[in-house]
Structures are given as C-alpha cells and as structure tokens.
Amino acid sequence: MNDFQLTRTLDEDAAEKALASDVLSGLTRTPKELPPKWFYDARGSELFEEITRLPEYYPTRAEREILLERAQEIAAVSGARTLVELGSGSSEKTRHLIEAMPALETYVPVDVSESALTGAAEALLAAHPGLRVHALVADFTKPLHLPATREPRLVVFLGGTIGNLLPPERAAFLASVRAMLSPGDALLLGTDLVKDEAVLVAAYDDAQGVTAEFNKNVLAVIDRELGADFHTADFAHVAVWNREREWIEMRLRARSAVTVKVRALDLVVPFEAGEEILTEVSAKFRQDGVREELSSAGLELTHWWTDSAGRFALSLSVADGVAR
Q1: Residues 6+ apart with CB under 8 A from 145
Q2: pTM higher than 0.90 for the full model?
Q3: For a tag site, which of 30, 228, 255, 294 has the least CB within 10 Å?
C-alpha cells in the first residue's frame, strides 16, 4: 500500500483512559449516563451493522439513497480534490462519493480505530489505484490538524452521528469544523429528520431485539475492560421520544435493585429498581434548525438534499461569506 499513510494522534492507551474516565464520571452522577461511543467494540460494530439491515431502521437506507442519487451533484458542487471523513469506520458509504469524484486525489479518513482505517484503505486502494489515503487515528470531537493536501476539500460527517452530540457539543464540533475550512472548502453533513414518533421509536427498539442487545453491549465492554460485574439480564432496554427536545433517548433500566462493582476503578455502583443509565441521545432535525446551527458556527447552508420519503437529509455548507 504505497499510497497509504497513517498518522496517529492518540496515545495507544488513550481509549483505555477515556473509558475509565467516562465510566467513573458517568456512573457516579445523577442521573447516570454513559457515552454511546463505548457500544462499538468488535461485537458492537457487528450488531450495528445488523441494525442497519433491520426493516425498522431507515436512516442508513435513506442516506444511501441520497448518496446514490446525488453523488455526482455533490462532487460537481464541491469540486473536491481532498475528501476528509470524520468517524469514517469502514468507509462503506463514502465509496459512493469517491466513485463520483474523478478529480479526487486524496482521501483522509479519521477514526479512533486503526484496524478499521487500515482495512478500509486496503479496499479503497484496490478499487481506486490512483487514490492516496492519509488516515488519521484521532478523536473527531477534538480539534484536528489535517495533513497538507490539495484544495478544495470536502469534509463529510455522515450517518446522522451529529445527533449523538448534545447542543453545546454540536456547537463546539461545528466550530471546530469551521476552523478546518479554507475558502472553497465545504462540509457535507448527514442529519436524521423529525418524523412520526412511532417510526422513530421503532427504529431504536426493533422487534427482533437487536438494538436492545446493542445497547446492553456497553455493559459487556465495561465488564471486559474494567473488570466490572454487570449482568446484562439485570437491565432492560428502553427507547423513548423526547418531544420537547426532539431526540430519541436510549436507556438501560435496572429490573430490580442491584449493586455493581467496577474493580479497575475500585468503584461500587448501587442501582435502585427502575433506575436508568442514559446511553444515547439521537437528535432529529428540521432544515431551519440545521441552518441556524451551521450559521452560528460561521457556516452557510447552500444545498439541501433528502431521500424520496423526506426522512433524512444531506446538507452542504461553506464558510460564511465564501461564494460558491
């Protein structure tokens, strides 16, 4: 892989330290909470891939529909020679864009998983021999220093993942993206849209129970990595629609009073019957709200595409005041 370069910006034990910190702070506060990024060990990633194929889970299909329909237009509008993907994972969806971008020279995937980055690079370089891949092992929620590449650049953040960030976190994230952009660069952002409550809840509480297993996987991660003694059977998966804030909340609810020990942290965590851990927030958006949040970060929304059913949107924005 002569055209592959990898830059590590995280210490090798960064994930271990971050997990310990998040578990300690999250399980000692009221109400208890855990960040959703800890779902995604190898098993969690497999479960999420299964979720994306479930009949109830529309976002992946809806976003793919837009990419397949609009990739040529996105490529033409952006004119990008460099594609930067935040939270790239397997880079599967991004391939639709890469195939539509004949002028593309460099792909910069950003992810915390070195193995995911390497695997995706191998597949992409096999399919696109002229492409250069410069992967960054990094946390996209922290300020990034991008490698020197040809402009213009298109930064993409797909999957509706921005909905997992709380409003202050979204503001900080969008501001950090704005800081990456030079005149002529653009941001392609995936956002799940507000829709019928029953459709939303079903997408996060499927009939087969795959999402329930995915949610509980965070407990298995803590057991394995931090020597805890969670038993997943002690907790029920809960998904609810918060009408006021327009987001889905995934929670784990203690079926009865239970005490959990986390040996690596020398921590004892009591749960009352019915007590919950908030494990994920997934905000849903409206076009005016997306425009406002982008504007507050110094970004101007210039293009808005949805799937045929209006369930999901991709938006293109540029640095405020930069003509396109």
Answers
A1: 9
A2: yes
A3: 30
Which residues does the chain have with pLDDT short of 70?
1-2, 321-324
pLDDT in the model for residue 90: 82
pLDDT of residue 312: 98
Buried/exposed 20-45: b ≥16 CB within 10 Å, e otherwise? bebbbebbeeeebbbbbbbbbbeebb
pLDDT at res. 321 = 58
Measured between alpha carbons, how far is 202 from 207 in angstroms, rounded to an integer? 8
Q: Do the beta carbons of residue 135 and residue 117 sit within 8 Å?
A: yes
**The pLDDT value given to residue 322:** 54
Residue length, the chain? Answer: 324
Residue 153's contacts (CB-CB under 8 Å, 6 or more residues apart) are 80, 81, 82, 83, 84, 146, 180, 181, 182, 185, 186
pLDDT computed for residue 323 by the predictor: 45
Give the pLDDT confidence score for residue 62 in this predicted structure: 97
